[in-house]
Design a protein that fits this description.
Layout (H helix, E strand, L loop, with lengths): L15 H4 E4 L6 E8 L8 E2 L14 E2 L9 E8 L8 E4 L11 H10 L3 E3 L5
Parallel strand pairs: 6-7
Antiparallel strand pairs: 1-6, 2-5, 3-4
Length: 124
């Protein structure tokens, strides 16, 4: 009897709980932002103001947490509100995605400068 891989039939994508390990108010921590997305964006992607994945030198960083992946184009996308603008938020740093893996350390430091707390959290 063959074994069925459920992932072949039901596509999954990262979600809010794959990115956030804790928040004082999970509803107030999220805001909708109108942005021109430059690549398919899913929860955990750290994007800049122009909608591209964050890289060194970018002056803004937003942690995307859409319920479903957002395709290229102008869209309203849910992002985490920086703790210096809202509630306390702790991120699962291992589930964040930047323009290049080598930017991860700098990107996490940038997010921490905005008030986010980050910790390794191996769930996915």
């Amino acid at each position: 009897m063959p074994v069925i891989n459920v992932g072949d039939y039901f596509q999954t994508s990262p979600s809010f709980t794959d990115v956030v390990s804790g928040a004082t108010d999970s509803f107030a921590a999220v805001r909708a932002m109108h942005i021109a997305v430059q690549q398919t964006t899913q929860a955990g992607d750290v994007i800049n103001a122009s909608g591209a994945l964050w890289s060194r030198g970018d002056e803004q960083a937003y942690v995307a947490v859409p319920a479903q992946p957002v395709e290229v184009g102008t869209a309203v996308i849910n992002v985490l509100r920086a703790p210096n603008m809202g509630s306390w938020v702790a991120l699962k740093s291992d589930n964040l995605r930047f323009a290049d893996a080598s930017y991860k350390e700098d990107g996490i430091a940038f997010l921490e400068s905005q008030g986010f707390q980050t910790k390794p959290f191996y769930t996915s």
